[in-house]
Design a protein that fits this description.
602 residues; alpha+beta; DNA primase DNAg catalytic core, N-terminal domain; Dna Topoisomerase Vi A Subunit, Chain: A, domain 2; five-stranded mixed sheet; 11% strand
Length: 602
């Protein structure tokens, strides 16, 4: 079921994840006793029946039967396959997913790039302190108002003038030379000449969420072009997914409530020096959905900060379109436009952190920016202007994911244009196709409600499974599995598999067990049983489990014994042998002993 991903890694991943956090970022939960509740995202309902148990790390819907652990939720909600869900959850926790054997050599080579890039970062930092021509770089940084402390925090460095400084320092073998080329630190021209990519520049190491150096940015100190230069795409650096300063922002904030996206490295660093340490910057690309999903996994709000000129407004429009598909309920996006000629760096130095923070707090909400920018130049007093606004806005609103926010945005458009919501839906509805085309998978996956009474334990075997799910340590009460192997009936095989797994891995928890059988028929049963609440005190579960196993083992004998007694009733007493009489007496005594022992436990 785990494919080529080791089960031990999946167990560790689930052990580190908090299902309440995973689900709450997608569906807003409310505390209800010891659990959390919400309306189920997998079927339509008005009264919440979707429950999340933080203690046992699983969720269950009493309406439609959806249930499972954090991975199961991501798979169903995001319509992801199992490997993609593992990648998503692992990425949010800063973990690396083990790969299949055929990829190990390639990935080992990629992993070797991380220490090499860290070595390059340290080399550039030493050059900023020691190189004879460091003064140019130091004076530039001081001129931008940076202190040595902030330069150290962001690991700023200096790529000295010259064609092959880094090559000579780190490319001491042919293998390391090839690795430096693979990492984008060296360039090879058409004639075969190899030289440093970064020369005569202040260097900004780019770190991923785990703090590993994956690339560099460089600001020229002379007259070379371009003014700013980034590492190219490499096996460990994809510009469209990374944000400069995100690692430092996470280090500085135990819990991020908001992230500001600015346009340059120096903006991020200058804000951090003035105590605004939640800013990030894209790396020469427009803000995309991958950037925003990464941010929204960490905090509920993003503020885009742009220049107030035409170019800034155009960049904001691109950011708006990228943000719309990410705007699930509970998320917020706002837009801050700075006075013309100002950027965060100059503004925070001239006016101070308090002034800049005030601007951020008053940033324009996404809905206002969307409607005001689209209405610019339109006369909303005329029917033509209202029709034009509807035509422009409705397709954009269609990009919003289903939810309350989407409904409110359509309602706002209806109020601004005077059109009914139904009429707006017709504007965005696709025309009828002459031939049917496959519809995209719904998000999240919908389920039919359960039939009444479907979710309760229905046998001794299921009762035993239920008790194991709520208290896996109870498995240690079964010393010998052989008698259970002789039992027949539904779910016996699952009970045995559970006991065998818990024998091998006694540290297993409820959510690990659910994950082990996720996506199977047995997994559906486990989800239903795990969701049940019974009035059994925690200290009594092991005794209850042992008693249930005892009943399972003796229940067939009891039925056989009762059948034999019933047959004896129809025979003459003189025809019953002494041996049969003795066996009946012994079994009666054994039955009485079991009944008395069960009575004491209860």
């Amino acid at each position: 079921m785990a494919g080529l991903i080791p089960q031990s890694f999946i167990d560790d991943l689930l052990d580190r994840a908090d299902i309440v956090d995973v689900i709450d970022r997608r569906v807003k939960l409310k505390k209800s006793g010891k659990n959390y509740m919400a309306c189920c995202p997998f079927h339509q309902e008005k009264t919440p029946s979707f429950s999340v148990n933080p203690e046992k790390q699983f969720y269950y819907c009493f309406g439609c039967g959806a249930g499972g652990n954090a991975l199961g939720f991501i798979m169903d909600y995001e319509n992801m396959e199992f490997p993609a869900a593992v990648e998503s959850l692992a990425d949010s926790l800063g973990m690396t997913v083990p790969r299949e054997q055929s990829q190990q050599r390639e990935e080992r080579g990629q992993r070797d790039l991380y220490p090499l890039m860290e070595e390059a970062a340290r080399y550039y930092q030493r050059q900023l302190r020691e190189h004879p021509r460091k003064t140019t770089a130091v004076d530039y940084l001081k001129g931008r108002g940076l202190t040595g402390e902030i330069a150290k925090r962001f690991d700023l460095g200096f790529a000295a003038p010259g064609w092959d400084n880094l090559l000579k320092a780190l490319g001491i073998t042919e293998e390391r030379k090839q690795q430096l080329k693979l990492a984008g630190m060296l360039v090879e021209n058409e004639s075969g000449r190899v030289y440093d990519r970064f020369r005569d520049r202040v260097v900004f190491p780019i770190r991923d969420q785990r703090g590993r150096v994956i690339g560099f940015g460089g600001r020229v100190l002379g007259d070379d072009k371009p003014k700013y230069l980034n590492s190219p795409e490499t096996p460990i650096f994809q510009k469209g997914r990374e944000l400069y300063g995100l690692y430092q922002a996470r280090q500085a904030n135990r819990k991020l409530e908001r992230i500001i996206i600015v346009e340059g490295y120096m903006d991020v660093i200058a804000l951090a020096q003035h105590g605004i340490d939640n800013a990030t910057a894209t790396l020469g690309t427009a803000t995309g959905q991958a950037h925003l999903e990464k941010i929204f996994r960490l905090c509920p709000e993003v503020v885009f900060c742009f220049d107030g000129d035409a170019a800034g407004r155009q960049a904001a429009s691109r950011a708006l379109e990228a943000a719309l598909p990410c705007m699930q309920d509970g998320r917020s996006a706002r837009f801050l436009f700075l006075p013309e000629g100002e950027d965060p760096d100059t503004l925070v130095r001239s006016r101070g952190a308090e002034h800049f923070s005030g601007l951020v707090a008053d940033a324009m909400p996404l809905d206002r920016f969307l409607f005001e920018s689209l209405a610019s130049g339109l006369s909303l007093d005329s029917l033509e202007g209202k029709a034009r606004l509807s035509k422009l806005a409705a397709p954009l609103l269609q990009k919003l994911p289903p939810g309350v926010y989407r409904e409110l945005m359509f309602k706002e458009l209806a109020e601004r244009t005077g059109m009914a919501t139904e009429a707006l839906n017709q504007i965005v509805a696709p025309p009828a196709a002459p031939t049917p085309t496959p519809a995209p998978a719904p998000r999240p996956r919908q389920r039919e409600p359960l039939a009444r009474g479907q979710a309760g334990p229905s046998s001794l075997v299921q009762t035993a499974i239920f008790l194991l799910l709520h208290h896996p340590a109870a498995a240690q009460r079964v010393e010998d599995l052989e008698p259970l192997r002789r039992l027949e009936g539904p779910d016996v095989a699952l009970l045995l598999e559970l006991l065998e797994l818990l024998t091998r891995r006694p540290e297993s928890t409820t959510h690990m067990l659910l994950g082990h059988w996720y996506g199977t028929e047995q997994g559906e049963l486990l989800n239903r049983l795990a969701s049940q609440e019974r009035l059994i005190p925690p200290e009594g579960i092991e005794n209850e489990f042992a008693d249930t196993i005892d009943q399972l083992l003796h229940h067939p004998k009891s039925r056989d014994f009762e059948a034999r007694v019933d047959k004896l009733k129809h025979r003459n007493y003189a025809d019953i042998s002494e041996l049969e009489k003795l066996e009946i007496i012994q079994e009666l005594r054994e039955k009485r002993r079991r009944d008395e022992e069960r009575g004491r436990k209860q």
